[in-house]
């Protein structure tokens, strides 16, 4: 049947794409993408010639009708984003939900995703994690998000801009404390790939010593909250206070 393929593309290294993805990109009637020039570079690296259609957050509602109509006409379309898996902090959600609501066929073609790539080599717990998307760029909002996650026991994965890395790590020190372990995975699959782990406090010194760390793209991973085994819980303190009051 005519299908919308959700095709993951590389996050840097153009070779990180599956055979199946390349075959689909070569054979669909149309490729819906974010930046047509960016997608053309990927296509020409793999000697694929095909038509592209630009898709942005601001024209997504118009495109969803257009794409649904094309599927009903029997065409197949691939949806790609500039990097990684579409819909993951990228456009496509409205289209996919519209097509699913109309019982049209949507097939995922798996591949790179910066969040999962970073997590897999972070050294932090991977059994349970949460993906938190982009951290807010303003300090107040960022500190609020971090404060709400203070007691989150799962590993937390964020997208952030390296130029804000020092401000972000300072906020982590302020809100979550200097001992919280963090990992920054920068320029994944590219020439200057760096995956650095340290406690938030020591991370600042490292970042401030190397301005190159503030360039490119990064994933930030924060270790989940671990209760201090020596800490007495507020509930236990309440019980003890009550017991003491009866002993007087
Ligand atoms: N859909 C993409 C995915 O599956 O990872 C994410 C798109 S989002 C608009 C772009 C963000 O992903 C960047 O700001 C950065 O946080 C992260 N990212 C993308 N490529 C990366 C790379 N090569 N290294 C580190 N982070 C990357």
TrEMBL record:
InterPro entries: 4pyrrol_Mease (IPR000878), 4pyrrol_Methylase_sf (IPR035996), 4pyrrole_Mease_sub1 (IPR014777), 4pyrrole_Mease_sub2 (IPR014776), rRNA_ssu_MeTfrase_I (IPR008189), RsmI_HTH (IPR053910), SAM_MeTrfase_RsmI_CS (IPR018063). GO terms for cellular component: cytoplasm. Signal peptide: none annotated. Residues 3-202 form the Tetrapyrrole methylase domain. Keywords: Cytoplasm, Methyltransferase, rRNA processing, S-adenosyl-L-methionine, Transferase. GO terms for molecular function: rRNA (cytosine-2'-O-)-methyltransferase activity. It comes from the Bacteria. Gene3D superfamilies: Cobalt-precorrin-4 Transmethylase, Domain 1, Methyltransferase, Cobalt-precorrin-4 Transmethylase, Domain 2. The keyword Protease does not apply. It is found in: Cytoplasm. The keyword Methyltransferase applies. PROSITE patterns: RSMI. PANTHER family: RIBOSOMAL RNA SMALL SUBUNIT METHYLTRANSFERASE I. Catalyzes the 2'-O-methylation of the ribose of cytidine 1402 (C1402) in 16S rRNA. This is Ribosomal RNA small subunit methyltransferase I.
């Amino acid at each position: 049947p005519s299908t919308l393929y959700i095709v993951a593309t590389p996050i840097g290294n153009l070779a990180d794409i599956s055979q199946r993805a390349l075959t689909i990109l070569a054979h669909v009637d149309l490729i819906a993408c974010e930046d047509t020039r960016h997608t053309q570079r990927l296509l020409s690296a793999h000697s694929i010639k095909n038509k592209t259609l630009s898709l942005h957050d601001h024209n997504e509602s118009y495109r969803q009708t257009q794409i649904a109509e094309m599927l009903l006409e029997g065409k197949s379309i691939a949806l790609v984003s500039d990097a990684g898996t579409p819909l993951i902090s990228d456009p496509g959600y409205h289209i996919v939900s519209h097509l699913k609501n109309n019982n049209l066929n949507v097939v995922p073609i798996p591949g790179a995703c910066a969040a999962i790539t970073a997590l897999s080599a972070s050294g932090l717990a991977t059994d349970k994690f949460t993906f938190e998307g982009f951290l807010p760029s303003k300090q107040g909002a960022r500190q609020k998000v971090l404060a709400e996650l203070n007691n989150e026991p799962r590993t937390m994965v964020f997208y952030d801009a390296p130029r804000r890395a020092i401000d972000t790590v300072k906020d982590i020190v302020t809100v979550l404390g200097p001992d919280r372990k963090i990992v920054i995975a920068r320029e994944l699959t590219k020439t200057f790939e760096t995956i650095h782990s340290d406690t938030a406090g020591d991370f600042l010194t490292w970042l401030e010593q190397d301005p190159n760390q503030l360039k490119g793209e990064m994933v930030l991973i924060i270790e989940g909250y671990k209760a201090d085994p020596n800490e007495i819980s507020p509930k236990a303190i309440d019980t003890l206070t009550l017991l003491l009051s009866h002993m007087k």
